[in-house]
Specification:
- The longest helix has 22 residues.
- The protein is an alpha/beta fold.
- The chain is built from 11 helices and 19 strands.
- The strands form 4 sheets. The chain has an 11-stranded mixed β-sheet with strand order 4-3-5-6-7-8-9-13-12-11-10, sandwiched between helices.
- Bound molecules: 5'-O-[hydroxy(phenylacetyl)phosphoryl]adenosine.
- The site of 5'-O-[hydroxy(phenylacetyl)phosphoryl]adenosine has 22 residues, from helix 6, strand 7, strand 8 and strand 12.
């Protein structure tokens, strides 16, 4: 029997859900107009006022919010509540310029945790469960979101955070963890490590995992399910919209239900911004209906996706989104960290290199690897291995402090990176995801 955390909302007939969205949208647009001068100016520039928005059918009249707006308004310019009413900040990795800061009132945290609790219950969680939260804690939303959701469900929550693989496996065994929350690549890595330790699925009582924050394939799902002996559920979200739990998979494992009482999903043409008909593939845009502190309207996620409005066998009525199929910008997600090629270029230029480089991303044993191949300029060319080693280490340090990631750096001779006749091919992503 399918269980729900908030059955009256999760299985609400679609006409009622639409009426709820209409009502919440009108209220939210007024809230933003009254409290976010930055967005109000965008509405005025488009000639729209709150009176023009009577419901979801009018959503297309509103201007988009993009990452560029977040940068322009950084850090406090898109807040819908004064600082004194906010209780939390989360943020994505990256430099100041690219870093996304999101703000929460206590009410926002509460609703976000409800969304994560829905995902946990859909994966079978009850108060009998021991939930090991191995997403990173801190500024990243993964740890805090699933932690809060786990509390709401009443699971015994282990806030172990990510890393320290042997300890993770030890905790699973000693405390009989039944639910694991982490990135899919870390779940796969835990499975590999268990194998190396001579442990199989029967040696741990895990039954389900809630994995997201990065792309993962069906093959990877099968692999994780087999090595850990669990059912593996996908969960999606982004910092700008609170974090994990914008959408989540149910027992059908056939798309992620968008929490539509909190978020309206649209699919647009990434080039023209035009709203595409139901079932089309395009860029996913979300409007947050209930967030007070950081109320984004028509936020362009840059994730390429499709929505499925067919009824689901689980009984939930909320629309399902497919796994994101790629991005309409050049952002890479490497070991869960958002990386823009321009950040890497900045580090290279700051160290005196020219923009002749290649970024090679791969996945080895389920872990993402990042290599940066950089040409030495003719002036700095040397074949002294000690000197090359020293310079590579400087770049490794520079990249670590810019990205928060360790990368391999290979300095190569001038003109040894193949020049393209068109746009330079700077990123080679070999991951099969
Ligand atoms: O990754 C929030 C999260 C934490 C989601 C834990 C799920 C679990 P950001 O760091 O802001 O937030 O990154 C958001 O990650 O736009 C997608 O491109 C990607 N992403 C998130 N979940 C998935 C997923 C968190 N299930 C960006 N599948 C998003 C594929 C995902 N990509």
């Amino acid at each position: 029997m399918e269980r729900y955390y908030q059955p009256e909302i999760e299985t609400m007939p679609r006409d009622q859900l639409r009426a709820l969205q209409d009502e919440r949208l009108v209220k939210q647009v007024k809230h933003v107009w009254d409290n976010v001068p930055y967005y109000r100016a965008k509405m005025e520039a488009k000639g729209v006022t709150p009176d023009d928005i009577k419901g979801v059918a009018d959503l297309h009249k509103l201007p988009f919010v993009t990452k560029a707006d977040l940068r322009d308004a950084y850090p406090y310019g898109l807040m819908g509540k004064p600082k004194k009413d906010c209780v939390r900040i989360h943020s994505t990795s990256g430099t100041t310029g690219k870093r996304v800061m999101a703000f929460y009132t206590q009410h926002d945290v509460d609703l976000w945790e409800d969304c994560c609790a829905r995902a946990l219950v859909a994966a079978g969680a009850t108060e009998e469960d021991v939930c090991q939260v191995a997403y990173g804690y801190g500024l990243f939303t993964g740890g805090a979101g699933l932690h809060g959701g786990s509390h709401k469900v009443g699971c015994l929550t282990i806030p172990i955070s990510s890393g320290n693989t042997e300890r993770q496996i030890g905790f699973m065994q000693d405390l009989s963890s039944t639910i694991l929350c982490c990135t899919p690549s870390y779940a796969a890595y835990l499975g590999e490590s268990m194998k190396e330790m001579g442990l199989g699925p029967d040696d741990i009582p895990l039954k389900a995992g809630i994995f997201g924050a990065e792309a993962w394939s069906e093959e990877m799902r099968q692999d994780i399910q087999n090595t850990l002996g669990i059912k593996a559920y996908d969960i999606y979200g982004l910092t700008e919209l609170s974090g994990p739990g914008v959408s989540f998979e149910c027992s059908a494992q056939a798309g992620m239900h968008v929490n539509e009482d909190h978020f309206i999903a649209e699919i647009i043409d990434p080039d023209t911004g035009e709203v595409l008909p139901q079932g089309s593939k395009g860029e996913l845009v979300f409007t947050s209906l209930t967030k007070e502190a950081f109320p984004l309207l028509r936020y362009r996620t840059r994730d390429i996706c499709q929505l499925n409005y067919e009824p689901c066998s689980c009984g939930r009525t909320h629309v399902r989104m497919c796994k994101p199929m790629g991005r309409s910008d050049d952002m890479l997600i490497i070991r869960g960290v958002n990386v823009f090629p321009s950040q890497i270029e900045t580090v290279l230029l700051n160290h005196g290199y020219a923009a002749n480089y290649q970024i090679i991303v791969d996945r080895v044993n389920h872990t993402d690897t990042l290599e940066v191949r950089v040409e030495m300029t003719p002036e700095m060319f040397t074949d002294n291995l000690g000197e090359i080693d020293k310079r590579q280490k400087q770049l490794v340090d520079g990249l670590r402090s810019m990205l928060g990631l360790s990368a391999k750096v290979s300095l190569v001779a001038p003109k040894s990176i193949v020049r393209s006749e068109g746009k330079a091919v700077r990123v080679i992503d070999k991951r099969k995801i």
